[in-house]
Inverse folding.
C-alpha cells in the first residue's frame, strides 16, 4: 500500500536514495530547498537555498549530483559539503536549466536541459535561453568534453539507462506548455558509450506525461505519469500502475532491498514497497 511520508512542498521532484544513511533527498523546487527524510528522523530541510535544484543522482563515488535551475548548472556536493560546478556552459553559452541527470558506469554525466527554470521566476530565474534549443547532453568529467547527444526534443526531461546501458530512455514533456506537444518516452541505442542512434517513441504516456523515470533489474521502465506510476516492459507493454492521488514528477528505488519506490508527487513524498528491485547504482 502507498504511504504518504511527508507533505508540504509546492512541487516535489528529484528523489535520490542514500543507502548508507537510510535517507532520501528530494527537491521542493519553488521553495528553493532540498529536503531529507529517513524512517529514523522523519523529514527536515537539508539545504536552503539550494540553487533551485531539480533532479538528482549519485556519481561513482556516491557523491550527490544535482541539476540546478537557479545556477543553470549540474553540480556536485563534495564530501566536505561544498557544492561545486560540474558543468554550466556549452561552447561559452549558459545552459538553460538542467532538469534530470544520470551517471553512466564510465563516469560520464548525461542530463537534459529544458527551459523550465528560466521560463518564469517560479522555479528559478526568468531569463533568455542562450542556447536557443533544448538539448540532451553527455559530459565527460575526465576530459571536460560536453557534447550534444540529442537535439530534436521539445522539452527533454527524465533520463535513465537500461540495466546494460545499451539503451537510454528519455522523456519529452513538451505537452506541459502546448496541447499538441509530446507526452512520450523515447528510447535510443547507445553507440560506443557516447552517441545515440535509432531513436523511436517507446511509449505515449497518458494521462499527463512522463517526467522522471527509472528501470528495475529486469529492464522494466517505471515512469511518472498523471495518474501515478506506470510500469512498462522493455517491449513497451503496460504491465501495471501504482495509482497516486497527486501528479507524480519523479521516483527512485531505495530502501535496504532497493525495492521501495520513493515518489515525489506535487506536494508530497510517498513510498510503496514493490516486487521489483531498482537497477540504479549504488
Ligand atoms: Mg523532471
Amino acid at each position: 500500500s502507498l504511504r504518504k511520508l511527508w507533505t508540504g512542498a509546492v512541487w516535489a521532484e528529484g528523489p535520490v536514495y542514500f543507502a548508507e544513511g537510510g535517507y532520501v533527498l528530494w527537491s521542493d523546487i519553488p521553495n528553493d530547498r532540498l529536503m531529507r527524510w529517513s524512517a529514523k528522523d522523519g523529514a527536515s530541510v537539508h539545504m536552503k537555498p539550494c540553487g533551485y535544484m531539480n533532479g538528482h543522482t549519485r556519481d561513482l563515488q556516491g557523491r550527490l549530483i544535482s541539476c540546478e535551475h537557479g545556477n543553470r548548472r549540474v553540480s556536485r556536493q563534495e564530501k566536505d559539503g561544498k557544492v561545486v560546478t560540474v558543468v554550466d556552459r556549452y561552447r561559452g553559452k549558459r545552459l538553460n536549466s538542467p532538469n534530470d541527470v544520470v551517471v553512466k558506469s564510465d563516469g560520464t554525466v548525461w542530463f537534459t536541459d529544458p527551459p523550465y527554470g528560466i521560463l518564469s521566476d517560479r522555479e528559478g530565474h526568468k531569463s533568455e535561453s542562450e542556447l536557443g534549443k533544448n538539448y540532451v547532453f553527455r559530459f565527460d568529467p575526465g576530459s571536460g568534453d560536453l557534447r550534444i547527444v540529442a537535439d530534436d526534443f521539445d522539452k527533454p526531461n527524465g533520463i535513465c539507462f537500461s540495466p546494460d546501458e545499451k539503451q537510454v530512455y528519455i522523456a519529452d514533456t513538451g505537452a506541459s506548455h502546448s496541447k499538441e506537444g509530446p507526452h512520450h518516452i523515447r528510447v535510443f541505442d547507445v553507440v560506443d558509450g557516447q552517441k545515440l542512434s535509432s531513436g523511436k517513441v517507446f511509449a505515449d504516456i497518458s494521462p499527463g506525461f512522463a517526467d522522471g523515470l527509472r528501470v528495475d533489474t529486469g529492464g522494466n521502465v517505471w515512469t511518472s505519469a498523471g495518474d501515478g506510476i506506470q510500469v512498462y516492459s522493455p517491449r513497451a507493454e503496460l504491465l501495471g500502475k501504482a495509482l497516486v492521488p497527486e501528479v507524480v514528477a519523479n521516483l527512485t528505488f531505495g530502501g535496504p532491498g532497493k525495492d521501495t519506490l520513493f515518489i515525489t508527487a506535487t506536494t508530497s513524498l510517498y513510498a510503496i514497497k514493490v516486487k521489483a528491485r531498482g537497477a540504479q547504482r549504488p
